[in-house]
Amino acid sequence: MLAGLKLYGGSNTLSPVVHLHLEHPSGNAATDTATLRRIADHVLSNSNILVTVSHYSNLDWVRPPASLIIFVNVALTDAELANISAALRKATKAVLNV
Fold first, then answer.
1. Right CATH number for 5-96 from 3.55.50, 3.90.1150, 3.40.1350, 3.40.50?
2. Reported pTM
């Protein structure tokens, strides 16, 4: 569990893609995207782990909420997964003050 973020779509264990949404979104897509981008930038600059932020067109009628996108594969070891989790935990604490 990551304070400040909630897992979306994680019930399908066959998918290698995990989306993490803000636990308490602001209601403004641009603000939420900027917050998630700060988390992703923190993870990259402090842990050298690349995390992407969802990007949708302004032309879309209905856009999913902004999310951090994590790609997971079977080649990752338990230690690597723990390292990623710790980096995300540290970044969310720094950015969201949780």
1. 3.90.1150
2. 0.88
